Amino acid sequence: MTRIDRDVATRAFNHALEHHEQAFEQFFIAKLLGFEISYPDDTCRVEFAVADFMYNPQGSLHGGVVALAMDVSMGHLLNRLQGPGATLEMKIQYLRAVRGGRVVATGSVLRRGSSIAFLESRLTNQDGELAAMATSTWRTSPAKPREPGLPRT
Amino acid sequence: MTRIDRDVATRAFNHALEHHEQAFEQFFIAKLLGFEISYPDDTCRVEFAVADFMYNPQGSLHGGVVALAMDVSMGHLLNRLQGPGATLEMKIQYLRAVRGGRVVATGSVLRRGSSIAFLESRLTNQDGELAAMATSTWRTSPAKPREPGLPRT
Amino acid sequence: MTRIDRDVATRAFNHALEHHEQAFEQFFIAKLLGFEISYPDDTCRVEFAVADFMYNPQGSLHGGVVALAMDVSMGHLLNRLQGPGATLEMKIQYLRAVRGGRVVATGSVLRRGSSIAFLESRLTNQDGELAAMATSTWRTSPAKPREPGLPRT
Amino acid sequence: MTRIDRDVATRAFNHALEHHEQAFEQFFIAKLLGFEISYPDDTCRVEFAVADFMYNPQGSLHGGVVALAMDVSMGHLLNRLQGPGATLEMKIQYLRAVRGGRVVATGSVLRRGSSIAFLESRLTNQDGELAAMATSTWRTSPAKPREPGLPRT
Lengths: 153, 153, 153, 153
What we know:
Strand order of the largest sheet of chain A: 1-2-4-5-6-3
Number of helices of chain A: 3
Oligomer: homotetramer
């Protein structure tokens, strides 16, 4: 009977419980999965270390977790650029199974209009190989000016 | 500062830690999210109760969790019918935000060929309304006879 | 060297040239492909006879023609229900090659909101088997009352 | 009543009738739409001039024609690299309406495996702006050695 590494999962859970806040970048799922979120060059980069508690029954990173990371990379980029949006749809292609290491999902904009935005995300494995490709369509909130001096959450 | 319900999340985590096994239906993520998996009438039904630890930063069920449940409903159905497969791609449309209650993702087969299978999944909210629609394409393992009398896991 | 049936193609072209009008149901491409469009039971049905001038290089109905028929079945349904929309995205799965006979694409609504609509379409071959499955997302025009007594084009 | 330019359509049709051959690059639809197909740098480039006979009822390039061009750019690239394949699925996002000018669909490989290939295609308008984005998944034929000296069709 295969079981996950209890210590790794427990540390991740306790860390998330302590440090989350239900806001962009800080929400519970993102903390549980150890997402490190940054915004280099008009992209959003979501990096995390694959752990066996994220596995599917066949012993690789679950496609739903891949979807989650890619969704976050696009939704956080859109939020950064324009304010929170709503995913209308997302498609993901799974090019390679991922079994470990650090992976990076990088979201970027295909086009941003006044009410609709189109984004893509590419997830690479530890060796920098493309492991998943996603495209998505979002309804954007009306762009509004932000108060100067306030950090973006 | 909004935080999740610690007790609900902790009970879910401890339950998953105790009762998971890295096999179909029993793997850690499925247990953490409380998936109840059954196979009525050539479909696979994944039912679970939405909890706030599954939320996105905007306070509704995260699209990645929706994707995960729908992926499971299709992958488990395929496994049941034919043995484990690999997702080549999945597309999800998000029709309605889900904020609570019990949701059900129901996977069904569009077509199963010898090496490729096409599936769909529909996720309904507590009121039975369609909240998400997914279609996906899978590479199937060569169908092989199963030992009689052995339960499928 | 394989060539198409000149007579069939020429008849289709001349028919389209004479009878088209750049409006819903009557536009040139729809006439060229022989689309018969009807609206039974809250769906839009696009029926046509496959001809070899619609083939791909491998001798079956081109995936792009399949896409076109399915797009028309969804766009025309939306137009009928609500006025003209714009396709944001469409995904098509190709389940079976189609080599001849009459095929039917049937569009239906997954959900229609005030500014966004989600639709699906299923294309069946001459034997009634599912040959292609599509889902799509549309931006809808603001619903406006229609003049009574005017037929919808 | 809006009608298409008869002369442009008739010239395109007669040209296709004379010059097509049901093979890669030369098949009837490709000739009718005036596709110019080339293979720069591991991509496949499909260029054509938008004409009003390719329009939807709303007066822009029909999404099905866009799908067709993008499908061709991916299928022809795959054929060039590996032999003919079959589209399992394709998703297209429509970023901008196209009303005229010369457009280019450029197909490229995301990953090619032994039995499955993942491709993308980007369609740009006359001003070089991204007007449509497609990704697709293909079943590839077993790679087989080609007879030396024979041109690839």
